[in-house]
């Protein structure tokens, strides 16, 4: 993609706001790239539409081309779509013994992933894990899990020939409780296609085990099929998260995007090979990069980001130099202070500012005060924040009441805003903003 885009983007060199033409030209290429990455057609359509809306009319920063700007918007949108609810890599396994049910088609990588995940839970999370194979269909399937268990040093439920999956699940549950396991994992049988028997079996196991997590394992190389499989499994069994395997292959990871867009399920992990430690937490940034086929695009996007921030800081500084320091600015500073441990903490980081800080009313403000001050600002209207001079008696009363605080505290805040505004003005003039820039970055 980057080569092709590069060509198109070189032609888009007009500065200013992104025109419809700019956006459309760039998005034609993005569309092709997504289809090549095996993203399903309806998802591509929606995605392109949503980027088009965001991009048209967006301001272009000085040192990137309109095309680069579109790439940044595309990249950000991809990440947003790929990011699911909850932390990737985290599982709900607090109540011991927590059952994890592994489902998916045959050959998707269920057994391998079960063992990889058991290893991760044992080593990283210090959990005591029991694995059980419920695959009575395929010869040697149960032995496969047993062998992997030995290899990674994780217990497996002893094999009893002739048992059905529900009976095995029950035995695993009992064994997990008696043996003091934190987690027990049920590796189910798969088939080449979804059929009623497979679903019925998985549902019966689910009803016995009451899993805290039902992880659907899907082959990341199968593209669109993967999504149909996911929808079906989720409808019939209920899926809490997805593991995409074979992400080490040639596939571009388009399945991940389709999966998120259509099922809405969070992708928790990706499989990156056959080895037992080839399981990683799903990272939207990495997959977005892969879908765009980039490398150099990342650098490009970072550059655009950086430029945006620098321009923002510069605009802010110009305002401060002119003595325009409003409540929005103060709020930003207060939030920054919260992060840095109060006013003195912040000022002490700036050369020569320690003394000044002590002379100000805001000196020695602590966390609870910062919270109250921010609450006051939150109770102001947009207009009031932009222009604190509006704040006369009646408005002050309303704001104080709205935040449950005294008018006297609001008066202190106003004084602080004026003092800080003055200080920012002086600082801006002193070092041509150098010091201020540092303080804000
Ligand atoms: P199951 O039928 O769903 O239990 O699938 P298996 O776990 O037996 O895996 C089928 C094959 O896929 C095995 O040869 C695995 O080594 C391989 N496999 C599983 N996960 C991955 C992966 O992330 N990357 C690669 N390259 N191979 C994988
Ligand atoms: Mg298996």
Automatic annotation (TrEMBL):
GTP binds at residues 104-111, 187-191, 245-248. SMART domains: AAA, SRP54, SRP54_N. Coiled coil: none annotated. It is found in: Cell inner membrane; Cytoplasm. It comes from the Bacteria. It is an enzyme of class 3 (hydrolase). GO terms for cellular component: plasma membrane; signal recognition particle. InterPro entries: AAA+_ATPase, P-loop_NTPase, Signal_recog_part_SRP54_M_sf, Signal_recog_particl_SRP54_hlx, Signal_recog_particle_SRP54_M, SRP, SRP54, SRP54_GTPase_dom. Its EC number is 3.6.5.4. GO terms for molecular function: 7S RNA binding; GTP binding; GTPase activity. Keywords: Cytoplasm, GTP-binding, Hydrolase, Nucleotide-binding, Ribonucleoprotein, RNA-binding, Signal recognition particle. Composed of three domains: the N-terminal N domain, which is responsible for interactions with the ribosome, the central G domain, which binds GTP, and the C-terminal M domain, which binds the RNA and the signal sequence of the RNC. Involved in targeting and insertion of nascent membrane proteins into the cytoplasmic membrane. Binds to the hydrophobic signal sequence of the ribosome-nascent chain (RNC) as it emerges from the ribosomes. The SRP-RNC complex is then targeted to the cytoplasmic membrane where it interacts with the SRP receptor FtsY. Interaction with FtsY leads to the transfer of the RNC complex to the Sec translocase for insertion into the membrane, the hydrolysis of GTP by both Ffh and FtsY, and the dissociation of the SRP-FtsY complex into the individual components. This is Signal recognition particle protein.
